[in-house]
Amino acid sequence: MAGLMAMAKEQRMKMVLIVISAVLTGAAIIGQSYLFVIIVDRIFLKGNSFSEITPYLLWLIVALLARTLFSYLSGRTGIKMASKVKWNLRRSLLHKFSKNPMQASLQGQSGQKVSVMMDTVDEIDSYFSNYIPQVIQSTIIPIMLLVVIFMEHALTGIIIIFTAPFIPIFMMIIGFNTKDKAEEQLDKMAAFSGKFLDTLQGLTTLKLFGRSAEQKEAIKKSSLDFRDATMVVLKTAFSNSLALEFISMLSIGLIALEVAIRLIIFQDITFFTGFLMLVLAPEFFTKLKDLGSAFHTGRGSMGAAKKLEKELEETIVPVVFGEESLSKDAPPLIELNAVSFSYGENAFALQNIHAAIRPYEQIAIVGKTGSGKSTLLHVIAGLVSLSDGEIKINGKNRSTYREKDWFNQLSYISQDPYLFSGTIAENIAIGGHIDASRMEIEQAAEKAGLTELVGSLGQGFDTPIGEAGRGLSGGEKQRVAIARAFLKRPSIILFDEPTTGLDLQTERILQASIKELSGNSTVITVAHRLHTIKNADKILYVENGELLAAGRHNELLESELAYRNMVTVQRGGAVQ
Ligand code: ADP
Ligand code: MG
């Protein structure tokens, strides 16, 4: 596979080291065989005494040690190469996933992404730690052995030349079959991981709808599929090694027969030569057989490599940023010029939005559920890439500014802010600069109305929350997000008001906090409450992904029938 070979080429130094170790291992094997045969020959045929063969024995030990050492060196280099490649791969994947976090997380299951990141990358390991060193060894060493065999007794060499090719031919035939199977196995594995994580995350929903039993069945099926795919791969692997064993045994048998006939009937070779052939031939075939099993693991890796390549190639259009700096001192002028965005072909799309948001303005985005309000916030936030049009910041395309500077300006309080697993203090601290003091964190929490909640938690600010700890309610999470904003002091605040009716106290806290934050910033709110709507400097009224009207509440009441209908239907309460 081109991708894997290219990765291997980047590790040229390590490849050279593996080649050198292979040559030295080959030399050690040849030396060892000679010494072994010499010792046997001298003791049994020539009747040498022990002291006469002692130097040979010592050299034999040296050869054995050298062989072990060089094999170890080769293996170690392979493992190092594998870990470097895996590190590179994971880095590129992470880079890709984080390049456009929003769109990356919109596409595909997150469980599947975890599986790609962890397991699929691990599958690559054996290609470098096992396959490459083995291919190098199994090419170099057998050739070295064959040269020696030809020099000593050409007929054995000829037998080998006729029988050995069956091994690679056979391997290739089987290899082609296993490749698809290995890919299938990986797909099944990813599907299984994805299914499992999805189900785990949605367990409450599934229980409520009485669907957990069905899901159990689905997981079971998914895991059985994976097992079956694994068994098929293993079956091929086992029959593969059986066949290789058979071929090499047959060849060695032939060589033994030929040597025996020569020794006993024709008596035209020495015991030394015959015995050397019988020692070298199995070494030769062992190396070829090792290649066979390495081939099998290599195939698995190639399946994984293909999968990774696909994942890395999958296009996510990144949100473009530039190099110009953007100061945080005052809120910028934000202009949307014919902005369009689509979740994909035939999916929901925002179309041709024109709007200007001046510094310190209070903007309310209003519209029915599903009209595209939250999507518009993503677009303004710069979390997704536009399919058309441009967003200008202080008169220049946003893509000219530095990404860091832009996001530094911004706090986005979504309807369901994400809590990382960590303490509540840590969760607030990610809003601010890296070394926010405990005091600053506590002040921010107080302003966001979290003091009472934190007081009720067992370990106060050090209580673990998020995935590994206690869960928080939607309103509480938004307050954490607001505390993050107090720590950050952004100049633009994007706020997706909760649709569900909050209790009065929470509502008051949220409103007061946003009000205080708005002293230093432009606030763009997806508004559901009449209060927010009435107070807004400008309302953006969206329907079906289009901006139908913009203006103050009273103006829209008069000019837009649809707007009036929507607001009056819900009079006094929350506006959907
Ligand atoms: P609102 O906030 O106004 O209720 P949204 O902006 O959340 O609406 O969604 C607008 C439309 O986009 C909806 O029809 C929704 O189904 C669709 N949508 C939201 N997220 C995605 C997504 N990740 N992929 C495809 N469609 C989406
Ligand atoms: Mg929404």
Q: Decide which structural class fits the backbone.
A: alpha/beta
Strand order of the largest sheet: 6-9-10-3-11-12
Strand content: 5-15%
What oligomeric state is this?
Answer: single chain
Tell me roughly what share of residues is in helical segments.
Answer: 55-70%
CATH topology of the largest domain: ABC transporter transmembrane region fold
Provide mean pLDDT, rounded. 86
Basic shape: elongated
CATH classification class of the largest domain: Mainly Alpha
CATH architecture of the largest domain: Up-down Bundle
The CA-CA distance between the termini, in Å, is 54 Å
Radius of gyration, Cα only, in angstroms? 35 Å
Characterize the structure shown.
- By secondary structure, this protein is of the alpha/beta class.
- The protein has two domains: 2-313, Up-down Bundle (ABC transporter transmembrane region fold); 334-570, Rossmann fold.
- 66% of the residues lie in helices and 11% in strands.
- It has helices spanning 2-9, 12-45, 50-99, 101-106, 110-152, 154-163, 166-201, 203-208, 212-266, 271-313, 373-381, 403-408, 424-429, 438-447, 451-456, 474-488, 504-518, 530-535, 553-559, 561-569, and strands at residues 334-342, 349-357, 362-366, 388-393, 396-397, 410-413, 422-423, 464-465, 492-496, 522-526, 538-543, 546-551.
- The protein has a six-stranded mixed beta sheet with strand order 6-9-10-3-11-12, sandwiched between helices.
- Helix 3 (50-99) runs antiparallel to helix 5 (110-152), helix 9 (212-266) packs antiparallel against helix 10 and helix 14 (438-447) crosses helix 16.
- The protein is elongated.
- The structure holds adenosine-5'-diphosphate (ADP) and magnesium ion.
- Adenosine-5'-diphosphate (ADP) binds at residues 106, 343, 347-348, 367, 369-375.
- The chain crosses the membrane at residues 15-36, 56-74, 131-151, 157-176, 237-257.
- Keywords: ATP-binding, Membrane, Nucleotide-binding, Transmembrane, Transmembrane helix, Transport.
- One of its GO terms (biological process) is cysteine transport.
- InterPro entries: AAA+_ATPase (IPR003593), ABC1_TM_dom (IPR011527), ABC1_TM_sf (IPR036640), ABC_transporter-like_ATP-bd (IPR003439), ABC_transporter-like_CS (IPR017871), ABC_transptr_CydD (IPR014216), P-loop_NTPase (IPR027417), Type_1_exporter (IPR039421).
